[in-house]
Write a structure and sequence with these properties.
The protein is an all-alpha fold. It has helices spanning 21-46, 49-65, 67-70, 76-94, 115-128, 132-143, 148-155, 159-174, 177-183. It contains 9 helices and no strands.
């Protein structure tokens, strides 16, 4: 997600090589391919375009600093996503004041005011009301299409804990009247087949 409408700063550029030219080129290729996906997940986690860019860039910087180990993992994208989720949760815990999304801006809105944009804003605001780990579990399960076992591996917890977090998160989302009005006829996330989780 770009920080300004119509502008995507793109992935950060690397300046030094952690493991030689070959590793540097491999990292640049990975970064270029995965940047849009990482940025989307970071936005769903943070609820802010600026924070999403910082989060995605921070995860890539961390991955780059230990690329020789990251590149040997079974799933490099999952490894970097895990770094990003943990950085988000750590940052969330360190905040001295909670930030809440609002539809009241200090200046005139410039974004396209379509129904889709409105629904998107309501969804992001609803996600922002969840605790960090519940939000991460929901984003990874329903937006990254990960199984409960995969989410548990990313969060470093048990599958039962993930199920509980998702259940509590969905209960809170169901209580959100604005979200219920926005999704209207769309199927409820719990309608997905649990055998695939």
């Amino acid at each position: 997600m770009p920080s300004d409408p119509g502008r995507d700063p793109g992935p950060p550029t690397s300046r030094t090589s952690p493991g030689g030219d070959s590793a540097d080129e491999e990292f640049r290729a990975f970064m270029g391919n995965r940047w849009p996906s990482l940025l989307r997940t970071a936005y769903l986690l943070s609820g802010s375009h600026h924070d999403a860019e910082d989060l995605a860039q921070g995860a890539l910087a961390t991955a780059y600093s230990k690329w020789s180990r990251v590149r040997r993992s079974d799933d490099v994208a999952a490894y970097v996503r895990q770094i990003m989720v943990h950085q988000h949760i750590d940052r969330f815990r360190r905040r001295t004041a909670r930030e809440w999304l609002t539809d009241r801006l200090p200046h005139s809105p410039v974004a396209d005011q379509t129904a889709r944009v409105a629904e998107h804003g309501v969804l992001v605001a609803a996600l922002a009301g969840l605790p960090a780990r519940q939000r991460a579990a929901v984003v990874l399960c329903y937006f990254e299409d990960m199984t409960h076992a995969q989410v548990a591996a990313v969060l470093g917890t048990r599958v039962g804990t993930v199920r509980g977090q998702i259940s509590r998160a969905l209960a809170r989302l169901r209580e959100n009247g604005a979200l219920a009005d926005a999704v209207g006829r769309h199927p409820h996330p719990e309608s997905r087949t649990e055998t695939t989780r």
